[in-house]
Amino acid sequence: MAAPLLTLHNITVALRETGRRMVTGVGFTVHAGEVFGLVGESGSGKTLLTRTVFGLQDDTHLVDGTVTFNDKTLPREGYASAARKLLGGQIGFVPQDPFSSLNPTMRVGTQITEALYLAKGMPMNAPATRQAAIQVLAEVGIPEPELAFRQFPDQFSGGMRQRIVFAIALAQDPKLLIADEPTTALDAITQRRVIELMLDRCRNRGMAVILISHNLELLRQSVDRLAVLYGGQLHNVAPASSIGHETSHPYTEALFDCIPGKDKTLADIRAIRGEPVGAGFGLKGCAFAARCRYAEERCRTADLPLNDNSSTGFTACVLGRGAPA
Amino acid sequence: MRTLWSYARNNIERTALIVAVLVILMAILGGFLAPFDPLKIDFRAKLQPPSAEHWLGTDGSGRDVLSRLLVGAQMTLTSTAIVLAVVVAFGVAVGVLSAFVGGAIDNLLMRLADVWLGFPPLILALGFASALGASLEAAIWALIVSWWPNYARLTRMVTVDILSRKFIASADALGVSTGAKIFRYVLPNAFDVLIVQVTLDISAIMLAISGLSFIGVGAQIPLPEWGAMIADGRSYVANGWWIVLAPGLMIFITAFAFNIIGDMLRRELDPTSRRR
To answer: pTM of this prediction?
Structure first.
């Protein structure tokens, strides 16, 4: 197998102010053209991890671990600015909230031509750039893209705005697209439609995607592989197709068990007892042990295994549940 | 222009807009419309009441009041425009710099502005103007020097707010440079707040210029600046009331009109004062 596009190894993210380690020992790989999911409850550290790894968060920093993108390992000195240099051309970002992520005083078209200029050096006012921008708008399913080009963001609905935000990222033609809860502000049907369209366009272009969500069901149905985060720890990396069919990591299993589905009866749906822990649990002991059905005494004290990225799957379960066959 | 007209909710606001346009036209065309030389002294025709020849009468030295009023409009409004332009440019630059750089420089600049704002601007301007030597130029400089912290403060506040919004984070993710961020992201979004302040300040600065001239540290007689005209006409109030009344009314009407427009813009553009 070819070298992965993005490799995270033993990533530890800490708050600058207090030095508290919020995300500990996370490692996974994303291959070119792969759609990779990152799932976790609110506060599990998924946003903090990605924003820090890609240099967008000012109040946290990387205290341990290496990030390799496109065969180049990012330096530890001046990490954030080195990571930010990749943004725009190599790595695209689709933000969480389409309602506040567009500049309200800039026409939709200008925001796309600006993205084209920044990523590819196309002059912002040239007819060719304009054409390219209109084409991207059409590609994400905006009706009447010529008209949309001249309009302002407030003239669009939430779903349309999410498409515009996506069009801006798509226009830059990055190797890797990071979508952080891109649809949380939208209703369920629009969510599904936008995600499907987004992944379809990315797959067409051979773009790798990291899709971040708290919605396991949404990810399970749309990504190739996914990583499960809990309490700032990486618990599981598994092919999406295996979840629900093969034995998984206990936390992944528990998450899957709370999703209602048409092949499940009410008795199959099980809530996870207890309260979720926040990010920053550390590496001593399994963060999920307090809520886990299988937990044994050693779960609370053992060092959590780290993902060495030697295979496509990984389980951090101390008991070895869900280990790839 | 059409948007401005559409903001007007009642006849007072419509009148204010019309008056403002007329005053600006007067300032532009005043020199051509003036029937007499505003500086020409004619002692044989002094203190004449309004008549067919001198519509607004003549002053104590026989100068035509209407001509002086028309040319004075240009003088007063141009001075106001110069003060505002420089103050806004400088204040906005300081505010944006402060917000972008942050840290010690931000603190230094803003505390300096705070100290500056501790003095009433008119008193501060009075001091500067008399130190610079009484003239219209001195009054303009004095007002520039005493007015900039308002805009520095306001711009810094608005910029900090804009920088915390999500579309700035998106711009970062696209790789937008700092310069482009200032001109395409921050300033257009700060425009609404700034334009309201500018409109309200038109009347305040106009009053300040006329006030300084009236006190005697601004434009000097025989220059037809409105404030100076009132100062000059003061001694003739008993037998030449029109000399003071004409420029006084002009100052009042103009300041009133721009104030109403400012309040109207604030109502329409400033989200914090929106009550619907």
So the answer is: 0.80
